[in-house]
Amino acid sequence: MRSIYTQETTANCIPWTQSEARLRHSANAFIKSSIRFDAMDSRDGGHGDIQQIDETVPVTPAVPTQIATEPAVLISTTSAEPPLIATTPAEPSNKYTKNQKLTLLVIGITYFLISASYSILAPFFSEEATKKGVSPTVIGLIFGDFALLTFIGSPIFGNYIGVIGANFMMLSGAWLCGGSGICFGFLDKIDHTTVYTVMCFVTRSVEAVGAAMFFTASFAIAAFMFPDNVATVLGLLEMISGMGAMVGPVIGGALYEVGGYVLPFVTLGGVIMINIPLMVLLLPKAPQSDETKSEGSIFKLLLLPNALIPSANILLILIIVGFFDPTLGPFVSKFTSSKIIVGLVFLSGPGLYGIISPFIGILADKGLTRPLMVGGDFVLCLGLLALGPIPVLGVKPRMWITIVGMVLFGIGCACAAVPVYTAVYQAGIKNGFADNFSTHGLTSGIINAAVALGELIGPVVFGGVVYQHVGFEWTAAILGFVAAFMGCIMFIFYLIQYQRNRRKDVTDDIAETNERSPLIQP
Predict the structure, then answer these.
(1) Which residues neighbour 46 within 8 Å (Cβ) at sequence distance 6 or greater?
(2) Which of 156, 316, 426, 473 makes an SS bond possible with 388, Cβ 3.0 to 4.6 Å?
(3) Three-state SS at 98
């Protein structure tokens, strides 16, 4: 401490006025008394900065041997510290760097292509597979195989993303998706039913593994590259993914009409393969294994309450979406015979979800993660109860009520789903996980696994078994009550946490005040 207050030599100072000299002398006297008090405090067991003090070393006043008669300013010529106030304003920086923009561009394009490739077979595959002698049950399993393999693969790839490498994982996933898509287009050349069925499962499984690799790595890379705008960027990717999933069936149907079964798969798969060199050229280098070692596992992260509850929330949302796939179309057909109107009603909820997701992400990045998730669940409940509507209300089903329900469903989904990644990641950081790329990989694996599991449970359990027993109205109402229950659970849990943190802050403030109190009272 004493070296800080060492007097500068007169040679290194510009002369100063008599009043300034007296002021400096008074300051040094105060410093000397402070040092002596610290030394006495340390001998008494306090926390003084100086353990021993040499009383023989005087603290000489910083008055120069010669004092100027004219006013002047004291400037040290030996000081290397920068000025407290910059003489010129700093240059304003762009919001996003070049690497961030390239990353978002590359991931966004590939996100759209893979999402579209996944859904292009919806308009015609069932009919083509039936011609080959495949039963409807097996056709459903072929569709469900994708979700099952994605659910299994996502946490595995998320756990080892630091070892495999994020860029390599994403490029490999895109290559598998594109290659398997092309291969799927030539399966109609197989006439044997068993061989055709087996090859459908094989190619679809390979595509699922590729999708798990790509989505897990791309989520982690995007979150790592945009640490201050995680929810905003992921909301934008959700919008792009939704656009791809909606456009995919349209593209698939149009290409099928033009060139038959082969053309949709070869076209989308080929575009994905052509896009891979673009990814290699433009994608910035992601952290490798030495930089991304994780101190925890994906199961350790998932078992944290602050991570488990948001993960269960997004699982519920995807179960609801999966329930709509086989059931919403027939329900809306009661009001109209136009397939175009049925399609527009079907896409109204997901479409609105995609449009508002980036804006919900902006709100989540401003610290509204928990209110958005809780409020989103209750909006979901209202939408699902309005869809039927719930029979006990005695309201006759109408088209406009169904549309209102779908609009509320889209808003609730965006509010409840977009902030989940941020909530899970922050839960890990606050509980000892490293703030690095590997933790992003674990978070991405959890989210993608929950999405895949919801896509598997939704159509099979609620869109199949429950729907057959109680019908569309009551199934939607049951899921609405589950959403409200989840919202209540989150509200109570977060309220308890808020009260605990508030009490802890008060206790810490009291302890800090006691530490700052003087040991010797006047």
Answers:
(1) 519
(2) 473
(3) helix
Residue 127's contacts (CB-CB under 8 Å, 6 or more residues apart) are none
- 402 vs 335: CA distance, rounded Å: 10
Q: At residue 321, does pLDDT exceed 70? A: yes
Angle at 438 between CA 436 and CA 440, to 5 degrees: 80
For residue 95, the surrounding DSSP H or E stretch is none
Q: Token digits for 124?
A: 């015609």
Residue 229: Cβ within 10 Å count = 20
Sign for the CA dihedral angle at 383, 388, 393, 399 comes to: positive
User: Measured in whole angstroms, how far is the alpha carbon of residue 169 from the centre of its chain?
Assistant: 19
pLDDT class for 409, splitting at 50, 70, 90? very high
CB–CB of 11/19 below 8 Å?
A: no
C-alpha dist (Å) from residue 134 to 143, 198, 204, 260, 463:
13, 11, 15, 19, 21
CA dihedral 214, 436, 422, 504 (to 10 degrees): 160
pLDDT-based confidence at residue 199 (cuts at 50, 70, 90)? very high
Q: Which residue has the higher pLDDT, 29 or 444?
A: 444
Which of 98 and 185 is assigned the larger pLDDT?
A: 185
Q: Among residues 470, 519, 446, which one has the least CA distance to residue 157? A: 446
3-state secondary structure at position 410: helix
